[in-house]
């Protein structure tokens, strides 16, 4: 089965997560840096690469600059094709929607662009994905299951505990016709589940269907002014289509708050979590950046931490994730923190449960601390030269 001849992908990256601010102030959720050298978008793109999908459309609300700078032509993921493929980025959808005046029978450009892409791709099937559900999914396996089940739509889910989602989460959970069966009868927002339910089958925002079904579903959503991820669109059409579930058993994290983003990075310091996400049968690919190996001086004191290249480490780093081109000076102490690309921590500074966004400069002797549940975020490009007031 040659999936590159059958499958195209629509990446809905208009994910709005206000509880990720200020990390998403200047970037889409998909563009969030992760694991010292990746971005969240690398994971869906890598899954598509392993499934030999070379025709992909991205739909982004707000600023797409950081995302476009990272993915460029899509070359690392095999999408720089001159024959029947390519990476197509649509940004500023909310601006177009605010300005457009629709004629009777006309649908919004957001949905029309998706329909046009799928028609022009000339593929038999469409996979729809997002980026906030951090995972490493075997798309080939999902497509194979979808074809064998003869379902109209196949939705990917994972069985999780109730605490996986926030109490007010609107992420959809699946209900099955019979326990142990794969046929889905309902998709309920997590916050509508009965309180006595301690387990849930959380929809991961990933679905596969035929191109014809996708066009029907999208047209229906446009005509009825339905907005939301693919699970929302499917929920409104459960009586019309046969929907089956595909259980994913690998690592999964819902990146919906600063705390969950922090936790996902910290999870990588556990070897089992790292292997579950990165060392499956398919690789995780990112844009290559050449650089020198990280330098650790004799004064450096390192324990249980992850580093990218091009760093200079002269201080103490414990239980932390450090991105590219970071400088940590002598007698600086970093604990349980994320230090993003290009940041500098001066001598004598102390950080605990802190997230430094890109290019932050921390002055000598500055002491900053948050908590595990509420890590302190320092916005991109800031310079702090005196102790932050509590």
TrEMBL record:
Coiled coil: none annotated. Its EC number is 2.7.7.27. Residues 19-269 form the Nucleotidyl transferase domain. InterPro entries: ADP-Glc_PPase, GlgDAde_trans, GlmU/GlgC-like_hexapep, NTP_transferase_dom, Nucleotide-diphossugar_trans, Trimer_LpxA-like_sf. It holds the Pfam family NTP_transferase. It is an enzyme of class 2 (transferase). Transmembrane segments: none annotated. Keywords: Glycogen biosynthesis, Nucleotidyltransferase, Transferase. SUPFAM superfamilies: Nucleotide-diphospho-sugar transferases (SSF53448), Trimeric LpxA-like enzymes (SSF51161). Gene3D superfamilies: Hexapeptide repeat proteins, Spore Coat Polysaccharide Biosynthesis Protein SpsA, Chain A. It comes from the Bacteria. Residues 298-368 form the Glucose-1-phosphate adenylyltransferase/Bifunctional protein GlmU-like C-terminal hexapeptide domain. The keyword Acyltransferase does not apply. GO terms for molecular function: glucose-1-phosphate adenylyltransferase activity. Belongs to the bacterial/plant glucose-1-phosphate adenylyltransferase family. This is Glucose-1-phosphate adenylyltransferase subunit GlgD. It comes from Carnobacterium inhibens. The gene is glgD.
């Amino acid at each position: 089965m040659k999936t590159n001849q059958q499958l195209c992908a629509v990446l809905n990256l208009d994910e709005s997560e206000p509880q990720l601010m200020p990390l998403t102030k200047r970037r889409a959720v998909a563009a969030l840096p992760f694991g010292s050298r990746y971005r969240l978008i690398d994971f869906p793109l890598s899954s598509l690469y392993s499934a030999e999908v070379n025709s992909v459309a991205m739909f982004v609300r707000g600023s797409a600059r950081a995302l476009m700078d990272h993915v460029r032509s899509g070359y690392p993921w095999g999408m720089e094709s001159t024959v029947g493929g390519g990476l197509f980025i649509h940004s500023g959808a909310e601006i177009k929607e605010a300005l457009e005046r629709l004629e009777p029978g006309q649908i919004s450009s957001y949905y029309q662009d998706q329909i046009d892409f799928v028609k022009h791709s000339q593929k038999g099937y469409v996979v729809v994905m997002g980026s906030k559900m951090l995972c490493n999914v075997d798309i080939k396996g999902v497509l194979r299951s979808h074809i064998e089940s003869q379902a109209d739509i196949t939705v990917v889910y994972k069985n999780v505990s109730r605490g996986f989602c926030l109490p007010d989460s609107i992420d959809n959970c699946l209900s099955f016709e019979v326990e142990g069966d794969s046929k889905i009868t309902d998709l309920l927002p997590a916050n509508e589940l009965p309180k006595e339910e301690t387990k849930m089958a959380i929809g991961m925002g990933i679905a596969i269907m035929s191109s014809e079904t996708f066009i029907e579903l999208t047209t229906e959503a446009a005509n009825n002014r339905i907005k939301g991820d693919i699970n929302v669109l499917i929920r409104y059409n459960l009586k019309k289509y046969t929907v089956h579930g595909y259980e994913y058993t690998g690592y999964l994290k819902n990146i919906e708050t600063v705390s969950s983003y922090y936790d996902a990075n910290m999870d990588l310091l556990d070897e089992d979590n790292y292997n579950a996400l990165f060392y499956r049968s398919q690789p995780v690919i990112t844009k290559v950046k050449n650089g020198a190996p990280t330098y650790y001086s004799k004064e450096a004191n390192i324990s249980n931490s992850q580093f990218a290249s091009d760093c200079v480490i002269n201080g103490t780093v414990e239980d932390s994730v450090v991105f590219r081109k970071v400088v940590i000076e002598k007698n600086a102490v970093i604990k349980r923190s994320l230090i993003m690309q290009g940041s500098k921590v001066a001598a004598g500074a102390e950080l605990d449960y802190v997230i430094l966004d890109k290019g932050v400069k921390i002055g000598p002797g500055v002491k900053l601390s948050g908590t595990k549940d509420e890590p302190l975020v320092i916005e991109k490009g800031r310079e702090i030269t005196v102790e932050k007031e509590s």
